[in-house]
């Protein structure tokens, strides 16, 4: 049974930092690309970043480039998102999601966590 | 960036009827060598994360009921839900994965009439 469980969200002041984690279970984590996608309250989906199965290929959306860092620890079956210089517009539920293909990259997402809420406010 | 535009923003359909949601990309998401369209559809029910319905524009994800179907090519795509059921109330998103940044449509809210 595939599970993705995000944690680390909370209230942070503008300019602050947070580190999100995503604990994966029920599948061979090291075989899959992983991604972070966010959803502002009442809004649509915005892709944030993805990382290859080995961690060597990484991409970011323009709105977070230079501020957010994605990483993974395959030994711990965990995905991370370090978020620095946070802004009010980063307020959203952050989902981790699994790429739809094992051993490669498809860039559609077949399993999602329940999400963790990040609120950036003074 | 490829802009994904869905229509309508919302629609209300009677139980048992057909719902049709459209998605248009600002540039083609068809990869000619493989003749595959890099387009996926998701369903998001209230209070839940999105769930994958369709990828490659028309391939249904395992476990998705066959009343859900996807069609289209190039820049114009359609998600069709036949015989609408109450549990289909949700917001539906299209997503292109032809290039980064990966982008989503703004969503279409489906309700029961």
Q: Which residues of chain B sit in consecutive blocks of at least 5 with pLDDT less than 50?
A: none
The value of Rg of chain A in angstroms is 13 Å
Q: Which strand-content bin applies to the residues of chain A?
A: over 45%
Cα end-to-end separation of chain A: 40 Å
Q: What is this entry, summarized?
A:
Chain A has 122 residues and is mainly beta. Chain A has strands at 3-7, 10-12, 18-25, 34-39, 45-51, 58-60, 68-73, 78-83, 92-99, 109-112, 116-120. Chain A is built from no helices and 11 strands.
Structure characterization notes:
The complex is a heterodimer of chains A (122) and B (113). Chain A is an all-beta fold and 122 residues long. In chain A, 0% of the residues lie in helices and 50% in strands. The radius of gyration of chain A is 13 Å and the shape is globular. Chain B is 0% helix and 51% strand. In chain B, strands 2, 6, 7, 8, 11, 12 and 13 form a seven-stranded mixed β-sheet that branches. In chain B, a hairpin with a 4-residue loop joins strand 4 and strand 5. The radius of gyration of chain B is 13 Å and the shape is globular. In chain B, 37% of the residues are buried. The interface between A and B is medium-sized, with 21 and 22 residues.
């Amino acid at each position: 049974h595939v599970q993705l469980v995000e944690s680390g969200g909370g209230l942070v002041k503008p300019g602050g930092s947070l580190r999100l984690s995503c604990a994966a279970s029920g599948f061979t984590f090291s075989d899959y690309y992983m991604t972070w996608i966010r959803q502002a309250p009442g809004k649509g989906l915005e892709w944030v970043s993805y990382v290859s199965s080995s961690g060597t290929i990484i991409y970011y959306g323009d709105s977070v480039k230079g501020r957010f860092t994605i990483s993974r620890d395959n030994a711990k079956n965990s995905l991370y998102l370090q978020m620095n210089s946070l802004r009010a517009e980063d307020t959203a539920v952050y989902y981790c999601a699994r790429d739809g293909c094992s051993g490669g990259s498809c860039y559609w997402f077949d399993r999602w966590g329940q999400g963790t809420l990040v609120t950036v406010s003074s | 960036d490829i802009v994904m535009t869905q229509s309508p923003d919302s629609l209300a359909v009677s139980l048992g009827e057909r719902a049709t949601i459209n998605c248009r990309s600002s540039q083609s998401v068809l990869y000619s060598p493989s003749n595959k369209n890099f387009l996926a559809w998701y369903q998001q029910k209230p209070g839940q994360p999105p769930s994958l319905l369709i990828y490659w524009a028309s391939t249904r994800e395992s476990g998705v009921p066959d009343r859900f179907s996807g069609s289209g090519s190039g820049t114009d795509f359609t998600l069709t839900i036949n015989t609408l059921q109450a549990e289909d109330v949700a917001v539906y998103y299209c997503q292109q994965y032809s290039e980064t940044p990966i982008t989503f449509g703004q969503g279409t809210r489906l309700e029961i009439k």
